[in-house]
Description:
The protein is mainly alpha-helical.
Amino acid sequence: MTRTNIDIDDELIAEAMNRFDLSTKREAVDFALRRLVGVQLTPEALLGLRGSGWGGDVDEIRDDNDPWREQ
């Protein structure tokens, strides 16, 4: 791990710390980066998901009032 000095919006980081119950700015930045990057899956892990299926019904959970949904 390396040490880096950055300028951060104080109000924004305070909001993140309050919203996610984080104790330090470092913890908030680390949390945000991990959420942004997400879980990295190897090609083998992705292929392992093939055929795992899903038993749900998209039409059943679709929100007909969703403004982003094409009509």
